[in-house]
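Dear colleague,

Thank you for sharing your sequence with our group. We've completed the structure prediction you requested, and as agreed, I am returning the results in plain text so they can be pasted directly into your records. Please verify that the sequence below matches your submission; if there's any discrepancy, let me know and we will rerun it promptly.
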Amino acid sequence: MKQLRNTLLFLILNFGGLAIGSWLMNGGPLSEWYTELNQAPWTPPGFIFGIAWTLVMFFFAVYLGKLFTVENTRKQTIAFFIQFILNVSWNYVFFNQHRILFAFIILVLLTALLFIYYFRGSKKLGNYKYLLIPYLIWLCIATSLNLYILVQN
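Please find the predicted structure tokens below.
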């Protein structure tokens, strides 16, 4: 029951973070600024981003639900909130402030943090760590898209 409660809490926090990030985007991918950028040829259609983030945050919530059930430490809480701040702030930095380099740095830090979760996370989680793979893949794609825009614009 505790794991279910934790998972529901992280579903609310994760999707709340997506909502805040979306609100901070200032038009985001539909803005004139973004649409006029030279974008990577592998940039997926817009609807893919919504699908990907929904799946990523669902799996991440299940992972966090288990993590905070077996090992609820201050270190885990701090790591989660760092991840949350990095994830939400990227939207504001990239789409609202047009700081492409700073946004790229945020993505690199966020990706590094997720790799730490994956490789150095609690051994008590077993196969739950595999729920991080969609997030890791998506962050690698997002980082490559951001880097392409940084280099080509």
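Summary note from our side: Helices lie at 2-23, 32-35, 46-70, 74-96, 100-120, 133-152.

Kind regards,
the structure core
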